[in-house]
What does this fold into?
Amino acid sequence: MSDNINKSLIESKQLLGELIDQEIVDFPELSAEQLSKFNAKDIVVMVNYTDGNFPKSESELLGGIYNALKLDRTQTNFIDLGKQPMTFKDAAKTLGTKNFILFGINPEDIRLHINLRPYQIVKVGECQLIFSHKLADLVENKSYKGALWASLKVMFNIQ
It folds into this structure.
C-alpha cells in the first residue's frame, strides 16, 4: 500500500511540475535591466494594480504587515503585475526568494494551475505562497486580516 501512495505522490509532483510550465498567456520576457532591479530578499509581495493607483490606506496596511513581520521595505521585492507581468516560475528562479505573499492575484495570473483557498499556505518546490484577497478588501474586512495574519505567523514561524 505504501508503494501505491509513494507512486501517487511522485505522479502528483510530476503533474504539478507540468502544470507550472504550462503557458496560459504570453508574458513578455524580462530584460536583464528589468531583472537587475530585483534581488534575493526575504519575501516577494505581488499585487495587480491595472490602473497604477496604489491608495494610501493600502500602502499603510502593507507597511503594518511589514512591521508585524519585522521587515522593512528593503527586505521585500514588490511586484505590481499590472506594470510588470511575471510568472511564478520566473520570479522564483530570478529572485531567489522562498516566500511569496500575493494580494488579489489568482494562481493563473502567474501561470500556476492549482486549486486553493485564500490564506492557505501552498508549497511549490522550495517556495511557500499565500494567496490573499486584495489589499483594498483587507482594509475593509477584519476577518480577512485575521486569516492573513494567522497564515503569516505559520509561514514565518512567529509565536
Observations:
- Strands lie at 43-47, 76-80, 99-103, 121-124, 127-132.
- The chain has a mean pLDDT of 77.
- The longest helix spans residues 2-21.
